[in-house]
Amino acid sequence: MSIKKLLLITLAAGISLAVIYGYKEYHRTNKDLSGAAPDYQVRDKELIHAFLADEPAAARKYTGKLVAVEGIIRERSADGTGHYTVALGGNTGAAAIRCSIDSTHGEDIALMDTGRSIILKGLLIGFSRDETGILGSEVQLVRCVRVPTGGTPNH
Amino acid sequence: MRIITLLLGSCLICLAKAPAQDKFFTRQGHISFDATGGMEKIAANNRSVTCVLDSRTGALQLSALLKGFEFEKALMQEHFNENYVESDKYPKADFRGQLLNNNEIAYTKDGVSNLKVKGLLSIHGQTKEVTANGKITVKNGKIQATAEFDVLLSEFNITIPGLVKDKVSDHAKISVDCLLEPLKM
Questions:
Q1: A30 and B25 in contact by Cβ < 8 A?
Q2: Which of A28, A64, A98 has its CB closest to that of B74?
Q3: What does residue B136 show for φ and ψ, rounded to 5 degrees?
Q4: What is the pLDDT of residues A63-107, one digit of tens each?
Q5: Domain of B68: which CATH number?
Q6: Looking at CA atoms only, how far is residue B103 from chain A in angstroms?
Q7: pLDDT, tens digit, 9 for 90 and up, residues B12-40
Q8: Which option is the CATH number for A33-146: 2.40.50.140, 1.10.150.120, 1.20.272.10, 2.60.40.3080?
Q9: CB–CB of A134 and B88 under 8 A?
Q10: Cβ contacts of B16 on chain A, cutoff 8 Å
Q11: B104: helix, coil or strand?
Q12: A2 exposure class (CB count in 10 Å sphere: 0-12, 13-18, 19+)
């Protein structure tokens, strides 16, 4: 095989790989987080305290990270489209952690009662400090999934 | 700037001072935006929006973390956060306004009313006045507030790179849908 032919084949292979990579990257969707290892594992109270005590430092540490939070379900609700949200916070005053549940994992949450302990894992997107003085501040997580604990079925 | 600060301050004072039974809220409001400029859909949804309405004064406040907007494509979401709204630097979008026709809305009985709201929208470090029309639906003691309005992206210092100018519109259509419950204190 001539060098020219070898170069052409290498070039064609390189272009094909670049096109496939570009196509895959362009059409990439947000991945399901159930199989991903969390960057941090914390209790609800600990996470809320971190943001209330020093918001900039906590934001630098946690924002954009995958965080597993263990806490007490204060509120569980679904909107008209069946999208579930869980607020975690036992003994945390008005402040809470609001977890927007991944739409493909709603059934894992649907039967969970308030007052029960749970571990939810999700992407921490920030802190919403209560400026009205009536609602309470919240740490917000999105694309949350339930982390199965011993003896609890994993749906 | 002083006028804007005064207006924002007045909205907060109104919301904080009103009796609880006049206030309605949600932490799960829905905001969607659509900035489609070509064949491909450029749209996102945020379902963790905080909204507080004081039915006595008509003061309305909305806030959302920009990282809470979810796109169908991950790459679009990354570009939105990193290149367009710079959500690490400007994490929140805020709207603080006033229902202009608040005294025409019957909050105490089931029914549908038109709403007109005017206020200040803050995104990407810029604050602009916006006006929107929508509907208020009262049912079983809850209030569903919906509204739509357009924003010109350049007014919020959001620049569309030349390479994608034919795909991304220079304005975004924003839709708000919040089911508000009475605030119990």
A1: no
A2: A28
A3: -115, 120
A4: 999 999 999 999 998 887 888 999 999 777 889 999 999 989 988
A5: 2.40.128.110
A6: 23
A7: 555 555 555 789 999 999 999 999 998 88
A8: 2.40.50.140
A9: no
A10: 132-134
A11: helix
A12: exposed
Residue A65: count of CB within 10 angstroms of its CB: 11
Cα separation of B98 and B120, whole Å? 9
User: Can you list the positions of beta strands (E) in chain A?
Assistant: 40-43, 66-78, 84-88, 96-101, 117-128, 138-146
Which of the two residues, A37 and A150, has the higher pLDDT score? A37
Q: Give the domain extent around B122.
A: 2-182
Mean of the pLDDT values across residues B91-119? 95
B127 touches chain A (CB under 8 A): no
**Strand bridging mode B59-65 / A84-88:** unpaired
User: Which among B38, B30, B37, B36 has a CA at the least distance from the CA of B70?
Assistant: B30
Instruction: Tell which B residues from 44 to 73 touch A, by Cβ distance under 8 Å.
Output: 47-48, 50, 52, 61, 63, 65, 67-68, 70, 72-73
Q: How far is B120 from chain A, CA to nearest CA, in Å?
A: 16
Instruction: Name the amino acid, one letter, at B45.
Output: N
Nearest residue to A135 via CA among A83, A75, A50? A75
Q: Find the helix or strand (DSSP H, E) in which B172 lies.
A: strand B168-182
Predicted pLDDT at B163: 82
Burial per residue of B97-125, b for 16 or more beta-carbon CB atoms within 10 angstroms, e otherwise: bbbeebeebebeeeeebebebebbbbbbe
